[in-house]
Amino acid sequence: MADLGNVDELVEDPEFLAYSARAEGTNISPQTLLATDYLNHFNEIVMMLEMIPDIPECFDEARAWQPKTYQQHFRDSQFRDKELAIDAYEHVPPRYRQPFDEVVGQMNLLVAMALDRIGEALAEQRAEVIRLLCSDSSLALQKMIDIASAIIHGSTRRLDQAEIDGFLAR
User: Fold this and answer.
1) What is the rounded CA–CA span in Å between residue 64 and residue 73?
2) What is the mean pLDDT of residues 108-112?
3) What is the 3-state secondary structure of 21-66?
4) Cα 56 from chain centre
5) Model confidence at 168: pLDDT above 90
6) What is the DSSP letter of 12?
7) Among 7, 62, 129, 142, which is disulfide-ready with 121 (CB 3.0 to 4.6 Å)?
8) How far apart are CA 28 and CA 33, in angstroms?
9) Residue 28: phi, psi to the nearest 5?
10) How far apart are CA 95 and CA 92, in angstroms?
11) pTM as predicted
């Protein structure tokens, strides 16, 4: 069950309540004001990482992938409620926004580190190392996507330093 923290705090915030009401019936969580559609941005790089061992030419496409902020993703998307997603983001309760922003930052760091390591292995033509790096990076990123998704759906779970170190040490 999600930790709702201080529910009274939300009930007294008229802007949150207004955005929450507008989010009803959309793909934006009325509880958190976040949308899982943002995670599609990270699913793209997961797919590219998984293709690199068999199609090394995909590395250039993966290297071209760039982090996008939540709001930038929606500005560039065809998401039906993109304007609501962009505007509501400023009103995401801190108990969701902080862990969400933290995990997104860690995902961006993981991608950058993984691509650097994969690039080195590709230059050295180390096929088994490439396969292992791509697999480990993809799995770690998928776990982080799951954590971000849980936050979007109302969890206040944060990554602890040991988890972060474990993901980035891969």
Assistant:
1) 16
2) 97
3) HHHCCCCECCCCCCEHHHHHHHHHHHHHHHHCCCCCCHHHHHHHCC
4) 25
5) no
6) T
7) 129
8) 6
9) -105, 130
10) 8
11) 0.86
- Rg of the Cα atoms in the chain: 18
What mean pLDDT value characterizes the chain? 90
Considering only CA atoms, which of 140, 118, 116 is closest in space to residue 129? 118
Tell whether the model's pLDDT for residue 4 goes beyond 50.
no
Q: Where are the chain's structural domains? A: 7-168
**Residue 28 forms beta bridges with which residues?**
35
Say how far apart CA 74 and CA 5 lie, in whole Å: 28
Write out the H or E segment, with its range, that includes residue 71: helix 70-75
Instruction: Look up residue 22 and give its two tokens.
Output: 């507008």
Residue 30 CB neighbour total at 10 angstroms: 17
Q: What is the pLDDT of residues 6-25, one digit of tens each?
A: 554 555 689 999 999 999 99
Which amino acid is present at 70? Y
| Residue reference for tokens 């293709």 | 51
Q: CB–CB of 154/31 below 8 Å?
A: yes
pLDDT at 8 (0 to 100)? 45
